[in-house]
Amino acid sequence: HVRTTGLLGAATPLLTACEGPQSVLDPAGSAAELIARLWWPTLFVATLVTLLVLTLLTVAVFRAHRKQAALPLNARQSRNLVIAGGIILPLAATIPFALSSFSIGRTIDAPLPDDAMTVEVVGKQWWWEVHYLDEAGDRIATTANEIHIPTDEPVRFLLKSDNVIHSFWVPNLQGKTDMMPGRTNVTSVTADEPGVYRGQCAEYCGTQHALMAFLLVAEEPERFDAWLEGQRQPAAMPETETQVRGHDVFFEAGCAGCHTIRGTSASGDLGPDLTHLASRRTLASATVPNRIGHLGGWITDPQHVKPGSRMPPSELTPEELKTLLGYLESLE
Ligand code: CUA
């Protein structure tokens, strides 16, 4: 009894680790549901096979140790052993998974209706550029590292890269899909419940691959519509004296060379669009929360937050930094 309790106690953290905002085993949408349904039997059979192999290996080692080697097999016996153990058993263990994997893949990749909502995501080094498209395929809003979708509605994702290969993956919602330079891969995401899920680049793409993450926010359709309408608007005009000064600092410090703020003359396209920066939950691709202290640290010394990042450090005076932060915080 004590042993059982101990085992259960040891298994609890393992099982809790299956829940959470970035887990294949905590599906929140139909595609992830199918993937999880394949994952569990795969784990079960793989565990059985591993245990079987280890048991046979142990028996063989002990027998050899005790010099109880089996009698040599005759030709017919060894042929049967090869056919059964080398061909039939492995095929029996793998063919059902190959077939159900194929069928699940077809279901997940079934084309969506033409009028389905479409989001274009471009993999950057090391962040995500996100465009919302209208029915004609024109970009109506641009953001970065935070994707909102309405619940209970399949959303089409057009996945691209203009640099190296990345892979788009929101474990709670869909299977990973590569983003290849020169082509557009398509995947779809349906979220059953509102929630904030974490996505992660799933293809090694350089220094900051591990911190190339994003949030996928699934929300009720009305909330989503309000969010998208907000993202479509140009940036808020600087109002207070601090914001006006911060707006000037933004241009003097050269930020506009890499960043766009719609509604101003800043139209750089190397870094994320900052038009509604303050509306986002995180900074630097879900590396740190979007709070004023983190924003100040990020602007001052990006290499400390995310070594290898393409964002250059700045040399602002404390006064300039304060006004710049005041302006950026107003970009809701
Ligand atoms: Cu992008 Cu790994």
SSE inventory with pairings:
Blueprint: H1 2-16, H2 30-65, H3 75-108, E1 117-123, E2 128-133, E3 139-144, E4 146-150, E5 155-161, E6 166-168, E7 177-179, E8 185-189, E9 195-200, E10 213-219, H4 221-232, H5 241-252, E11 282-283, E12 288-289, H6 292-300, H7 302-305, H8 318-329
Parallel strand pairs: 1-5, 4-10
Antiparallel strand pairs: 1-2, 2-3, 5-8, 6-7, 9-10, 11-12
The chain binds dinuclear copper ion.
The unique ligands bound to this protein are: dinuclear copper ion
Number of domains: 2
Q: What is the typical, i.e. mean, pLDDT?
A: 91
Number of strands: 12
Q: Specify the CATH class of the largest domain.
A: Mainly Beta
Q: How far is it from the N-terminal to the C-terminal residue, by CA?
A: 58 Å
Write up what this structure looks like:
The longest helix is centred in the N-terminal third of the chain and has 36 residues, at 30-65. This protein has two domains: 19-70 and 111-232, Cupredoxins -  blue copper proteins (Immunoglobulin-like, Sandwich); 241-329, Sandwich (Immunoglobulin-like). With 332 residues, the protein is of the alpha+beta class. It contains eight helices and twelve strands. A hairpin with a 4-residue loop joins strand 1 (117-123) and strand 2. Helix 2 runs antiparallel to helix 3 and helix 6 crosses helix 8. The structure holds dinuclear copper ion (CUA). Dinuclear copper ion binds next to loops.
